[in-house]
Amino acid sequence: MKRVLLFVMLALLVMSGLVFGENLQRYEDVEGTVNLKFYYVVGVAGALATVIDGMVDEFNRSHAKIEVEPVYCGNYNDTMTKVQTAVLSGNPPDVFVVEISELYTLLGIDGIIPLDKYIEMDGGVEFTGQYFSALYDNARADGQIWGQPFQRSTPILYWNKDLFAKHAKELESQGLDPTRAPRTWFELEKYAEILTEREGSKTNVWGCILPGGWNDWIFESFVYQNGGMLISADAETSGFGSLEVLQALTFWHKLTNELKVSPPLRPWNQTPLDFAGGHAAMMYYSTGGLPLIRAQANFDFAVAFQPMQIQYGVPVGGGDFHISKDIPPENQDAAWEFIKFMTSPEMAAQWSRESGYICINKLGLDLPEMKSYLEEYPNASLAAQQLTYSYSKIMAPNFQEIRKLFVVNLDAMMQGLQSPQETQERLHVGVQLILDEY
Amino acid sequence: MFIRKTDAGNWIRYSILVVTSLIMLFPFYLMIIMAFKDPKSILAGGYLAPSLEPTVSNFVRVFEAASFLTYLENTVLVVTGILLLQLLLIIPAAYVFARLKFRGSGLLFIVYVIQIMLPLEALILPNYRIMNSFGLINTRIAMILPFVGSGYCAFLLRQAFRQVPQSLEDSAIIDGCGHLRFIWSVLLPLSKPTLIVFSLISVATHWNDYLWPLIVTDSNRVRTLTIGLGMFVQHESGADWGMLMAATLFISLPLILLFVVLQRRFIESFLTSGLKG
Fold first, then answer.
1. Which pTM value belongs to this model?
2. What is the nearest CA distance from A243 to chain B, expressed in angstroms?
3. How far is Cα of residue A36 from the mean position of the Cα atoms in its chain?
4. Which chain B residue is nearest to residue A273, measuring alpha carbons?
């Protein structure tokens, strides 16, 4: 009996220890200080959580009346789950970053406020003019601006200069310049064919990797380059049925299944490692991969605009800041102060250097430390230049469903399980159904 | 172990065992060698061979990037908290379901264990709301409470308790045992294998919980190891394998050690239980 008691006591002890422990550690509110919870997502490699924590610390040091607590929330999907759960349970974070395509879902749960009044107060167009204007396209709905760009990227073409030089003769014999990346789809195909190195049935070096995982995002580029669009701006009509989409699908099918210059489905995470390891001459990848490649590749590489068909084109990607609706007005005001700080020229430039994301604030590019950085790594500025040709990423209510359908069908086609025509048919019908449902 | 070398059956048996063990051990081998490799040499090829110049730089970077010792402390607290409360609650419950007859006991049991069918993801929102209404968001208790009434544990223990013969209960009652004394002195010793199996499963499961702790906690001071590990598994760009493996090694080591230490008792308990049946 004594041992029973002992066991019960032990359990109670642990429990009460926990309870008291929690109480002792609760934050003490300092009079007059606004405490903000900031949910952030980490979407790129390296210890970016530490970078964010450092930036937040700097904000807290320079703003006596506001105390921001940064909360790491995992990847884009986990972060969205956490934000949704918290908002729906009446315990929203004050300010958060989620993936840009989630805007309609955020509006659907009535979780965020428009930022127009703050932007107006800070100079309106003068304020937004600091930023690359293409970045606001995904923050707009119902004539208002709901988000402030933060960690933004575009897919870009990476190429291995050493491998290009290795095949210089063959490239030149085809009239291709080995010192630059392909500029058109036609050239891309030719370069990729020559650069692929095979040994029997084994491919040692892939010509150009079209990665899986976020292949929907990469594919979107190809549709823009071909002059098409995937979903109408009012999010009502699917554009998947067009000839432009079919041509893009056919081109992908050719690269992966006929010419076999791209592996059928390379995991997103693995692709930069293949490239950094010299197993791919080119890859389509987020600009967010730059720091990792820079750190791990022991060869000369560069990035280039994605090759065009009839025009250059690329969708933007990444995450924006949002301010929650059901929080006190003073918290919303403080959250705006915080957002302004995080997207100021200095912070945007620092964030870009450490993460590989675009320096969203144009004024940040003129800072001396950024200038010397861009001189050292000219690759980093190319991503910003490509923004001239950028489009907003597709947005729609129930975006997660559309994305799932999109990825599943692209995967099947890349693996050779269905033809481009079947893929187009399934996507067009499926996407229209999801859009009609809303 | 090679006494009867001529016995072909033994050879086959051992080779199957050796091959299976190698397959099982291979991921651990990769994890360990990659954790000690310099990030550039991981990609350089020959990734199956251990590094000739082992480095602890990955571990240094991991510990710089996140407060893993706090995470470890929290994980241990949460996991033991869950296990102790589970045992405290479920042992009496399983006893009632197994040995006491009352109207509706069967139905009640079914309702109770139905929770095994519900995936955690479906319960995130209701659980979060309950924790929120108790003011427990961002506490270690919130990571413990949803799991203490484990239906799985109730099911396992009930089955184990039912196997104890009625005659043992009768003689215990004649000797003057009450409910609690009977549970403690008769049922639990006889159900040791089940208790150990369940404890291991519970500890391993909750040691590896990710989504719920991520959602219900905000601050580093209450967060657990898996969340720390999550910081190194990346989506928009490639993973830093050296750091990832160093962190994984640190996180899984306590569990592996626990299992190695308990292994003998774990297997013994199965053997002796056979004799008692």
1. 0.81
2. 30
3. 25
4. B238
